[in-house]
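1st attempt posting a full record on here, be nice pls
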Amino acid sequence: MRQAAAFWAQARKLGRPTADDKALDGDVILAAQAVAVTKTGKESVIATTNVGHLSRFAQARLWQEIVP
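the predicted structure (as tokens):
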């Protein structure tokens, strides 16, 4: 959650938030989880339709590009 908070603050400081100020920002929480997995030495890719927001923090691809 600390990494998610850091991503949240970074996005707002740059003027590019990933959610409304009153909304729970699931994008940064998900990205922080992916980063935590990567730090264990495992590869992580977020399968999403929201590559624009998530790829700012972690590796993300359209799910159609990942699923054969």
